[in-house]
Amino acid sequence: MALKKLNFWIGGEFRAAQSNATFVDHTPVDDSPYAEVARAAVEDVQLAAEAAHAAFASYRDTTPGQRETWLGKAADLLEQRKDAFADVLIDEIGSPLLKAHFEIKYAIAHLRTAAGIPRRITGQTLPSDVPGRFSMSVREPLGVFACITPFNVPLIKAMKQCTGPLATGNTVVLLASEEAPALAILVAELFRDAGFPAGSFNVLTGFGHEIGDDLVTHPRVKGVNFTGSTRVGRHLSALCGKHMKRALLELGGKNPLIILKDADLDAAVHAAVFGMFLFQGQACMASSRILVEAPIYDEFLSRYKAAAAGVGYGDLRSPKTMLGPIISQRQRDRIRHHIDDAVAHGATLETGGKWVGNRCLPTILTGVDSRMVCYQEETFGPVTAVYKVGSADAALALANDNCYGLSAAVFTQNLDEAMRISQGIHAGMVHVNAPTLHDEPHVPFGGVGDSGMGREGAQTDIDHCTEWKWITIQAPGASHGH
């Protein structure tokens, strides 16, 4: 069967790279070729940024009703096309069916939520000390947004990063992960068919390390939305600072799940399995540190090991499968290194550490300490460490002994303790009696520390994607005193 060929979407048309360069996208189940994809270079970035800038001149003046209609239509179309999207999520990035459906359902909800943004872009009237002067502030779109998305939830992140700018009158150049270009092209077709004008939404495919800097520093680009590693996030943050660009960075996590002695153990075990092993731990919100109070530690560990051993890893299209393949050889090597390093330095491998093809089976470590790479670093695979703690305060101290601060969770039946810990924990999001892995379209989603800066979500998109302008009107003949 011939490989599908994928081109950029620029200015309302599909285009090959100007050099005709391509790369091969592989399916992670067996690393077989999945698609031949246009590979962007600096001249392609230039073309996309200029197309988005040219479209901005008229797109900024589209009405709230128009943008609301396009976003709503995109949600309806995604619902109609969910099987095609699920196929790409499964075949291109190795999503189990459960996770693919989870992602599509979220994306539809996000589009519907974003459709409400255009009518909420409000300004203010302000009092003035100058007699006869009317003073007001209004919000204006910035211009072109560069949106750089990861492989793990490419549909969710395309919606989170791109709909805020589009809803507020900005235009977008999406640079998709090199692991998920086919999904980005499906999104381009979705927005095209929903009615978004040519040039308002553009897609580049290629390698971030080759063209990411060119896109972020392009003079036409005014805002940057990035999801990815902390290392790359720091680099892009420095570029944005140097070039005075607005940036929203959603980076890594090393998320603590605290289980106190009065917790509902059934619920806590379920949260630890779902929050760690959904999509084989390739999630920034994964529960990669589980801190269990001593009186229930042994029972929790025993139950958790049994539950982890029962996680399905069969056919990706089976609803019983939770665990799929790790995305790339580089990432597989990283996971192996984290496990081997921990064991070499004295950690105990309670379960897992084995591979079936490109799948790493659910892996639980104990005895992990600061000498080990996985103590501080994000593994981004199905590997977690369980720690015994002597008290709630000890759990809180250990939870905060980390440079990340994305998501956290605490299981307890003591509401006072839940509130105290949720307020004391250094994280952008805390869930009580629920997994660390949770998101909704309208909430301020994001982290602190090395987990990033800024917040995704409809509630915060208006601030992030618009600029205030102050306008005064002096009545003719009125006093101009100060």
How does this structure look, described?
This protein has 482 residues and is of the alpha/beta class. The chain folds into two domains: 4-251 and 450-469, Aldehyde Dehydrogenase, Chain A, domain 1, CATH 3.40.605.10; 256-432, Aldehyde Dehydrogenase, Chain A, domain 2 (3-Layer(aba) Sandwich). The chain is built from 15 helices and 23 strands. It has helices at residues 42-59, 64-80, 82-93, 97-114, 154-167, 181-194, 208-217, 230-242, 265-277, 294-309, 329-344, 373-376, 392-399, 415-424, 458-465; strands at residues 4-6, 8-10, 13-15, 22-26, 33-38, 124-126, 133-141, 144-148, 171-175, 201-204, 221-227, 246-250, 256-259, 289-293, 348-351, 355-356, 359-360, 363-366, 383-389, 407-411, 429-432, 452-453, 466-474. The strands form six sheets. A seven-stranded mixed sheet has the order 15-18-19-14-13-20-21, with helices on both faces. The chain has a six-stranded mixed sheet with strand order 10-9-8-11-12-22, with helices on both faces. β16 (355-356) and β17 (359-360) form a beta hairpin. The mean pLDDT is 97. Keywords: NAD, Oxidoreductase.
The figure for the number of domains is 2
Number of distinct helices: 15
Q: Quick one: biggest sheet?
A: 7 strands, mixed
The spatial strand order of the largest sheet comes to 15-18-19-14-13-20-21
Helix-strand category: alpha/beta
| Gross geometry | globular
* Reported CATH architecture of the largest domain: 3-Layer(aba) Sandwich
Q: Report how far apart the termini are.
A: 76 Å
Mean pLDDT, as a whole number? 97
CATH homologous superfamily heading of the largest domain: Aldehyde Dehydrogenase, Chain A, domain 1
Please give the CATH class of the largest domain.
Alpha Beta
Work out the helicity level: 25-40%
Number of DSSP-assigned strands = 23
Radius of gyration (Å)? 24 Å
Please mark out the parts with pLDDT under 50 across 5 or more consecutive residues, or reply none. Answer: none
Which fold does the CATH topology of the largest domain refer to? Aldehyde Dehydrogenase, Chain A, domain 1
**Portion in beta strands:** 15-25%
Pfam families: Aldedh
GO molecular function: oxidoreductase activity, acting on the aldehyde or oxo group of donors, NAD or NADP as acceptor
Domain Aldehyde dehydrogenase: 16-471
InterPro entries: Ald_DH/histidinol_DH, Ald_DH_C, Ald_DH_CS_CYS, Ald_DH_CS_GLU, Ald_DH_N, Aldehyde_DH_dom
